[in-house]
Amino acid sequence: DYVFSLLTGYQDPPAGIEIREGLNFNPYFPGGAIGMARVLYDGLLEYEDGTPATTSQMAKDVVVFLSWSAEPEMDERKKMGMKALTLLAILTGLSVYLKRHKWAALKTRKILYK
């Protein structure tokens, strides 16, 4: 969210705020003044599928790529997690069935006779 906000948050400084030469105003950067110029503009590139190249779309693409490059194994980990949850659900159902089946005789048995 921070990188997306930083890439899309460039704007003119509000009245009363002085920004030094060579700096740009971005409210999402601590202090509000950042040395990096705005790098994403509407229509900067063309997507093959015809998606409009808005600043927010390009910033989202950058954020998704950075997220993937930080954890390229995330998709494999999610698949493994789903397999583990499926196996646990099957084993839980099996154990509940076996518990009811095995303990049914013991729960209904009389221990004390008169």
TrEMBL record:
Entries under InterPro entries matching the protein: Cyt_c-like_dom_sf, Cyt_c1, Cyt_c1_TM_anchor_C
Transmembrane domains' residue ranges: 80-98
Keyword annotations: Electron transport, Heme, Iron, Membrane, Metal-binding, Mitochondrion, Mitochondrion inner membrane, Respiratory chain, Transmembrane, Transmembrane helix, Transport
A Gene Ontology cellular-component term: mitochondrial inner membrane
Positions bound to heme c: 36
UniProt remark on cofactor binding: Binds 1 heme c group covalently per subunit.
An annotated GO BP: mitochondrial electron transport, ubiquinol to cytochrome c
Nucleotidyltransferase recorded as keyword: no
Chief location bin: mitochondrion
Catalysed reaction, written as an equation: a quinol + 2 Fe(III)-[cytochrome c](out) = a quinone + 2 Fe(II)-[cytochrome c](out) + 2 H(+)(out)
Subcellular location(s) of the protein: Mitochondrion inner membrane
GO molecular function annotations of the record: heme binding; metal ion binding; quinol-cytochrome-c reductase activity
Cofactor(s) needed by this chain: heme c
Entry EC number(s): 7.1.1.8
Entries under Pfam families matching the protein: Cytochrom_C1
Enzyme class: translocase
Family: Belongs to the cytochrome c family.
Name by which UniProt lists this protein: quinol--cytochrome-c reductase
Species the sequence originates in: Lunasporangiospora selenospora
